Amino acid sequence: MKTHFPMNPSFTLRFLSGGKSKYIRPEEIIFLESKINYTILYLTKGRTLLSARNLQVYEQKLTDVSSFFRIHRGVIINMLHIEKIKLEKFTGSVYLHSGEQLCISRRRIKDFEAKYKQI
């Protein structure tokens, strides 16, 4: 059976938000969005977290979790939350189960397609 997360069901990631540590399972993260030197984490059940760390920090934390992909300079998505994909020659969009539509960078479309086929 192929899994997208480590076999340990208690695997969590530690995030700092409001000066406090929060522990989140990777499957709870829908996407992460950069806001200058902050990162907004959009989670399941309509929850959000604001972190004082930049997106690159979280990209490094999530490298071992195969379902995450940086679709744009300012956005990392969890590909397990994709509802629909719209790809054209030079543009692309993903539609998430939570209702958001996010653009895929023109330079990342081919890598996105290859990674999505593996998921």
UniProtKB/TrEMBL annotation:
Name the Pfam families for this protein.
LytTR
SMART domains the record matches: LytTR (SM00850)
Sequence ranges assigned to domain HTH LytTR-type in this UniProt record = 13-118
What InterPro entries does the entry give?
A: LytR-like (IPR046947), LytTR_DNA-bd_dom (IPR007492)
A single GO molecular function term of this UniProt record: phosphorelay response regulator activity
The protein, known as: LytTR family transcriptional regulator
